[in-house]
Amino acid sequence: MSNPKQLAGERATEYVENGMVVGLGTGSTAFYAIQKLGERIRQGLTIRCIPTSEQSRMQAEEEGIPLTDFSQVTQIDLTIDGADEVDPAFHLTKGGGGALLREKIVASATRVQIIVADESKLKDRLGAFPLPVEVVPFGWEATRNRLADLGCDPVLRRMQENTPFQTDNGNLILDCPFGRIDDPPALETQIRSICGVVETGLFVHLAHRIVIGKTDGTLEERIEPQPL
Ligand code: 5RP
């Protein structure tokens, strides 16, 4: 097996134990973790899961994975999710798949967040990947202008047919090409203070372990560095 995403996704499932509540991430790397969890459940693993998107919910249901929600649980033991960029301090950009809001709600309620990625996601600094920001549809143009004031030229995410991409929550995504993000916590605070913004794809202090699959078939794991 030499698919780095599959390597990382499947490895992360080894941290899942009987009785756990598990968050299911979204994207092509989390896909492999969900697939593997389905396999382990059919072999007797007993867990309950909360998906971070309708896409992951559908995959989980097809795999026969028992689902739960926040009306039933207050904390998630472990979540396995992907990322678009990971910096040395474990700050992340997420939302390439448009699921950032549910992903952040789940991550915020999670004890151990495992990020699965191939090595192309490791960056010295965030920002090369346009930062996804979820905004309410009403007045999105005004929200875009406030985001532009922060030093980028936000682009409304569209589907192939050119219709605006709609998130699972009925909102829009503005992709914000900052180029470089020198201070992720500060930028997250600035963006979240803009009226019309629902959530940003900047994940600050929300990752505990990174599992990296490599093209040579090896794996690397990093544990969250202690904040200075
Ligand atoms: C979805 C996400 C994904 O986790 C992120 O885009 C990484 O996806 P992939 O594993 O397909 O590269 O944040 O909103």
Structure description:
It contains 6 helices and 13 strands. The chain is an alpha/beta fold and 228 residues long. The protein has 2 domains: 130 residues, Rossmann fold (3-Layer(aba) Sandwich), CATH 3.40.50.1360; 70 residues, ACT domain (Alpha-Beta Plaits, 2-Layer Sandwich), CATH 3.30.70.260. The strands form 3 sheets. It has a 6-stranded mixed sheet, with helices on both faces. Strands 8-9-7-10 form a 4-stranded antiparallel sheet. A 3-stranded antiparallel sheet has the order 4-5-11, with helices on one face. α1 packs across α2. The model has no long low-confidence stretch (mean pLDDT 97). It binds ribulose-5-phosphate. Ribulose-5-phosphate binds next to α4.
Topology of this structure?
Elements: H1 4-12, E1 21-24, H2 30-42, E2 48-51, H3 54-63, E3 76-81, E4 85-86, E5 92-93, H4 100-108, E6 110-118, E7 131-135, H5 140-148, E8 155-156, E9 172-176, H6 184-192, E10 197-200, E11 202-203, E12 209-213, E13 219-223
Parallel strand pairs: 1-2, 1-3, 3-6, 6-12
Antiparallel strand pairs: 4-5, 5-11, 7-9, 7-10, 8-9, 12-13
Bound molecules: ribulose-5-phosphate (5RP).
Which structural traits does this protein have?
single chain, four-stranded antiparallel beta sheet, Rossmann fold, 13 strands, six-stranded mixed beta sheet, 6 helices, globular, Alpha-Beta Plaits, binds ribulose-5-phosphate, alpha/beta, 228 residues, 2 domains
